[in-house]
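Tokens for chain A. Residues wanted.
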């Protein structure tokens, strides 16, 4: 398998999950400004959507969208327990968190990334994100991870929440979330992914 990634982007989530899985994979960096891969290929020729992550399977098929990729990888390594088994309520809870993170947190950062957005628009976006983080804080109040033990949802939450610092936004209002981020950064899979992406 080959993961197309951009350092620190949402592709870091499946990168962490791949590291957790122990499965063999390779990486190819994508410049999202030029849409060129490190190998000089037009990324639109690989993924017409033009964004990362994209996972090229061993048979040549391409899988896109982070929540789909992390579940696919988790199911290839069931012994690692990165995702609860299909057909269980636990799996639905995982999907529930992946959907929430994708639509409410990941997309919530869009305004903060927008160079043309005004300071007041960015502050309003952070206020809305803060309400989402209040819910995450409540979930983490009595357990270390979103589902009680590490899952693919935690990788996604870590990656998106890591963006707060890039926008000079403090997590001081959420001590449980801060503790979660510290725990995640200490995981060998996260360390390995960050190092491979040049983020350490």
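Reply:
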């Amino acid at each position: 398998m080959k993961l197309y990634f951009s350092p620190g982007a949402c592709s870091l989530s499946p990168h962490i999950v791949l590291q957790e899985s122990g499965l063999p994979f390779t990486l190819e960096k994508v410049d999202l400004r030029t849409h060129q891969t490190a190998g000089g290929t037009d990324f639109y020729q690989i993924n017409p959507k033009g964004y990362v992550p994209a996972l090229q399977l061993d048979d040549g098929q391409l899988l896109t969208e982070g929540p789909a990729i992390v579940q696919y990888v988790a199911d290839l390594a069931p012994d690692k327990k990165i995702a609860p088994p299909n057909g269980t309520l636990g799996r639905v809870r995982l999907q529930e968190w992946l959907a929430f993170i994708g639509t409410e947190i990941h997309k919530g950062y869009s305004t903060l990334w927008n160079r043309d957005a005004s300071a007041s628009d960015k502050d309003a976006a952070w206020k809305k994100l803060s309400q989402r983080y209040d819910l995450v804080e409540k979930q983490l109040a009595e357990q270390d991870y979103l589902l009680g033990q590490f899952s693919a949802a935690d990788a996604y939450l870590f990656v998106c929440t890591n963006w707060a610092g890039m926008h000079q936004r403090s997590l001081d209002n959420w001590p449980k979330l801060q503790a979660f981020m510290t725990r995640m950064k200490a995981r060998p899979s996260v360390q390995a992914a960050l190092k491979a992406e040049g983020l350490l």
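The chain has two domains: 2-80+189-196, 89-187. The beta strands are 2-5, 26-31, 36-37, 54-56, 62-64.
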